[in-house]
């Protein structure tokens, strides 16, 4: 596999080839995922939950994401590396510029931000200054306290329409990728078809251009609650490399996510 870039992902979308993404937080797992050809690795602020044991992602800091980004960077040969901007690290465009630069200098190829309309100017400013942006809509976990829990988004018509409009606006503002989390499959399909940029789904059905999962869910080591949209690939393969390979293959051939992983 050649180095994955925003242009190679765009080409995959245009050719109808599905790509896969996993979270990664250290050099060893990143190296294994990269070697199995996982196109995108995300240093997600999910690390606040799966590594630190917090109940949500809010306690995570930019310095913590930068630390894990440096580690993951050392494990990568080809995958595109995205770093999450944590809660309140991009509340103003100025804060976003400052903190995104820290993550890029730690080795990220792109940063990911949660939000719609209010972020448009920030997305443009980052992109103009050489920082590619992955947008994130739907169930944006940093807003869990506003949502009143981890709830599916975009179920009513007004909300669905707003998410679609925000997706288009984020693309127009310069976003080069979009993550859709926990929305009905039909809405994710509409958005994926409406946008020229690649769309990555998690709990968003089978029709997005790519799929992302948290590595702990894929390897069945998340304690307690396993989300409906996830799949434990270690259980069916018994070996970490084989589990990653199976995830990639099932995404590429369209068997993951199945109906049982999808919200309607
Ligand atoms: O933090 C994370 O792991 C994420 C993915 C679930 C998309 O944002
Ligand atoms: Na995240």
From TrEMBL:
Q: How is the cofactor bound?
A: Binds 1 Mg(2+) ion per subunit.
Q: Which residues bind Mg(2+)?
A: 45, 84, 114
A Pfam family the protein falls into: Pantoate_transf
Gene3D superfamilies, per database record: Phosphoenolpyruvate-binding domains
Question: What reaction gets catalysed by this protein?
Answer: (6R)-5,10-methylene-5,6,7,8-tetrahydrofolate + 3-methyl-2-oxobutanoate + H2O = 2-dehydropantoate + (6S)-5,6,7,8-tetrahydrofolate
Q: What EC class does the entry list?
A: transferase
E.C. code: 2.1.2.11
What cofactors does the UniProt entry give for this protein?
Answer: Mg(2+)
- Cited InterPro entries: Pantoate_hydroxy_MeTrfase, Pyrv/PenolPyrv_kinase-like_dom, Pyrv_kinase-like_dom_sf
Which keywords accompany this UniProt record?
Cytoplasm, Magnesium, Metal-binding, Pantothenate biosynthesis, Transferase
- Give the metabolic or biological pathway: Cofactor biosynthesis; (R)-pantothenate biosynthesis; (R)-pantoate from 3-methyl-2-oxobutanoate: step 1/2
* CDD domains, per the entry: KPHMT-like
Q: Which residues are listed for 3-methyl-2-oxobutanoate binding in this entry?
A: 45-46, 84, 112
Query: Main location per UniProt?
Result: cytoplasm
Q: Does the keyword Iron feature in the UniProt annotation?
A: no
Active-site residue numbers = 181
Keyword match Transmembrane helix: no
Where is the protein localized? Answer: Cytoplasm
Q: Name one GO molecular function term.
A: 3-methyl-2-oxobutanoate hydroxymethyltransferase activity
Subunit comment? Homodecamer; pentamer of dimers.
Per the record, the similarity remark reads: Belongs to the PanB family.
Q: Could you tell me what this protein does? A: Catalyzes the reversible reaction in which hydroxymethyl group from 5,10-methylenetetrahydrofolate is transferred onto alpha-ketoisovalerate to form ketopantoate.
Q: What is this protein called?
A: 3-methyl-2-oxobutanoate hydroxymethyltransferase
In its UniProt entry, the species of origin is given as Shewanella sedimentimangrovi
Q: Which taxonomic lineage does the organism of this UniProt entry have?
A: Bacteria, Pseudomonadati, Pseudomonadota, Gammaproteobacteria, Alteromonadales
